[in-house]
Amino acid sequence: MSKRDNLYLIGLMGAGKTTVGRLLAKHYGCSFYDSDHEIEARTGVKIPVIFEIEGEAGFRRREEAAIAELTALSGIVLATGGGAVLSTVNRENLRKNGVVIYLRGAPEHLYERTRHDRNRPLLQTENPLDKLRELYKQRDPLYREVADIVVDTGRQGVSGMARTLFGKLDLLRSGLPLSDTAD
């Protein structure tokens, strides 16, 4: 199997990486993984507990190890955690081992999707929307650096995003250039 057989989804929390990833895996007959779920399965605790005990740095070390193992597999779809791109090692593993898809969402839309989710430690702040804006400003250049395909999540539904991605992936796999990587 080649690099083109793996699909990796990146983007901020709430962009739809897990949901879209499951649809892509089903469509292409691949195994689906979510790096956060893998970390939780390995540790036996939820991500917020890891943050509480080990801090963000401890979580990022675990994330780097999980992504290194997962990107060594073939024929998979992987939804990464929103901060996975902060690691140079992760960015390199993603870039060299698969097609990287950036689900880009405006902080305001992502806030609407995540505001009631207590399983997102970085958003447990006085102003989660400001935090999302800060994360977007910090991470968007890193997402763009590693992405082969960029899709704006906007207000479109998951099935619409998946259809857009099927078309872009078919073009990419056929060797035709993507005229515009963002939708």
Class based on secondary structure composition and strand pairing: alpha/beta
Q: Given the structure, what is the number of helices?
A: 7
CATH class label? Alpha Beta
Distance between the termini: 28 Å
* Strand numbers in spatial order across the main sheet: 2-3-1-4-5
Q: Which ranges are low-confidence, i.e. pLDDT below 50, for 5 or more consecutive residues?
A: none
Q: Based on CA inertia axes, which overall geometry fits?
A: globular
Rg over CA atoms: 16 Å
CATH topology title: Rossmann fold
- Can you tell me the number of structural domains? 1
Average pLDDT reading: 87
Name given to the CATH homologous superfamily? P-loop containing nucleotide triphosphate hydrolases
- SSE order, one letter for each helix or strand: EHEHHEHEHHEH
Query: How many individual β-strands?
Result: 5
**What percentage of amino acids are in beta strands?**
5-15%
